[in-house]
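Per reviewer request, we include the raw input and output of the structure prediction for the construct analysed in the revised manuscript.
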Amino acid sequence: MLIGQGLVITPDGKNALCIHARPNFNITPVQVNQGWTQTHALSIIPLTGKDEVVTLLLDNVNSGAANPHGIAMSADGKHLYISLSGTHEITIIRLSRLKTLLARTKPEQKKTLHLNLGFLWRDGRTIRRVPSGGLGPRGLATHPKTGELYVANYYSN
């Protein structure tokens, strides 16, 4: 079950990248922390070929990626930006590093990445979070020439 928030297409047109909540309705919610009731994720949806959808968790063991709302990609396709409205942060993913991590992952392991809170965080260079500059970031846009990221912070006007 996906509760989607945003979608972008990679510049090469090969994949759609979708951010969404991933409810953990199949387990008893005995521990609310560490994403046991709901996690937030990025799914890579192939638009060509026979590859399967890969779902990666934006949360990590120590902090959740609360309420992903907006998604944007740099004009050069090197970075993916995701607004985290619940933590007032922007997640930045280096897509070249992500591609390398996925290339090193066995096909049977890719099927279980939706359960792995540490996959994106394990090398310390693929994903990071920065303050959004305000409260409740939602909409994102990148300037096509300068590459600047613009953030619409809902609670900060």
